[in-house]
Amino acid sequence: MINKLVNKIKQTGAPIVVGLDPMMKFVPEHIQKKAFADFGETLEGAAEAIWQYNKVLIDNIYDSVPAVKPQIAMYEQFGIPGMIAFKKTVDYCKEKDLVVIGDVKRGDIGSTSEAYAVGHLGKVQVGSQSYYGFDEDFATVNPYLGSDGINPFIKVCKEENKGLFILVKTSNPSSGEFQDRVLKDTDKPLYEMVGEQVAKWGEEHMGDTYSYIGAVVGATYPEMGKVLRKVMPKSYILVPGYGAQGGKGADLVHFFNEDGLGAIVNSSRGIIAAYQQEKYASFGAENFGDAARAAVEDMKADIAGALANR
Fold first, then answer.
1. Please, is 130 exposed, middle or buried when counting C-beta atoms within 10 Å of its C-beta (0-12, 13-18, 19+)?
2. What region does 71 belong to: left with phi over 0, alpha with psi -120 to 50, or beta?
3. CA distance 169 to 225
4. N or C end: fewer C-beta atoms under 10 angstroms in the chain?
5. Interatomic CA distance for residues 238 and 103, integer angstroms
6. Maximum distance among all Cα pairs of the chain, rounded to whole angstroms
């Protein structure tokens, strides 16, 4: 799957992943009204609104970007109907040949980790039959329980030719409370040691040029990204924090290798709720999908310009 991701980045010229992180405040009123008319102001109505919103977004961006990243919490808040909307979204994205990164941030051990890995990336055995659960192509994983939490995922990834993005240095302001702590025996910050371990895990599961085992490193910490790029030369870096969290193209150049590959940058509300921004307000709520596509093209130009001028 990493080979497909790299090839689609080359084809689209867009090292971009769109975060499908729907919130009801992002869903235009006309979509909400129709969903509530059909299902009432219920969890089913909310899930239908989210699904219809996602579908329009996907229809407008699928040929412009290589990948999407649905954040499962945005669906879980609506209970079982929300999870059905999550699955419908994953399936529809795959129908459109998009690479799907399940932003699930799982982190546990033993049989629990195995179950998470099977549920999101592999097949579950039911009697004599086996079935895919959510069937994403990649999943995000929290490594802070150690190899016990990661190895079950790597096992399933090898079986299914799928991949991981492991949290290394996250984009949130308080990430440094733990991740930046310097370890006395190495004089290195914790995030760098995690990056070294990601590189080792990645050696066990290589694609043609990059590993199936990637890392999450926030755009809000470009200097740390520069260090981690050297620590993990064969790991793809998923970079959150662009746009709404303050990251911009000029901050991203160190996350990429010299060939212009090696990183994929996430934007969520900056794309899916672009119509609510002053810059794209002229599209109006009725044309929110067109606004999202315009935001993708602007982001693509921003990143390309930054890489050209580094």
1. exposed
2. beta
3. 8
4. C
5. 11
6. 62
User: Three-state SS string across the chain, please?
Assistant: CHHHHHHHHHHHCCCEEECCCCCHHHCCHHHHHHHHHHHCCCHHHHHHHHHHHHHHHHHHHCCCCCEECCECHHHHCCHHHHHHHHHHHHHHHHHCCCEEEEEEEECCCHHHHHHHHHHHHCEEEECCEEEECCCCCEEEECCCCCHHHHHHHHHHHHHHCCEEEEEEECCCHHHHHHHCCEECCCCEEHHHHHHHHHHHHHHCCECCCCEEEEEEECCCCHHHHHHHHHHCCCEEEEECCECCCCECHHHCHHHCCCCCCCEEEEECHHHHCHHHCHHHHHHCHHHHHHHHHHHHHHHHHHHHHHHHCC
Per-residue pLDDT, 258 = 87
Residue 305 has which token pair? 């310009």
Tokens encoding 219: 């755009």
Domain range spanning residue 195?
2-308
**pLDDT value of residue 219:** 85
Weakest-pLDDT range from 54-68, 87-101, 184-198, 285-299: 184-198
Sign of CA dihedral 19, 20, 23, 26: positive
Q: State the CATH number of the domain containing residue 226.
A: 3.20.20.70
Number of domains present in the structure of the chain: 1
> Comparing 47-51, 152-156, 167-171, which segment has the lowest mean pLDDT?
167-171
Indicate yes or no: pTM above 0.85.
Answer: yes
- Catalytic residue positions? 105
| Residues paired with residue 237 on neighbouring β-strands, in sequence order | 215, 263
The pLDDT of residue 203 is above 80:
yes
Q: What single letter denotes the amino acid at residue 44?
A: E
- Kindly report the backbone phi and psi dihedral angles of residue 183, in degrees, each rounded to the nearest multiple of 5, phi listed first: -85, 130
- Distance separating alpha carbons of residues 233 and 88, to the nearest angstrom: 35
pLDDT at residue 56 above 80? Answer: yes
CA distances to 19, 143, 169 from 108, rounded to whole Å, are 24, 9, 19
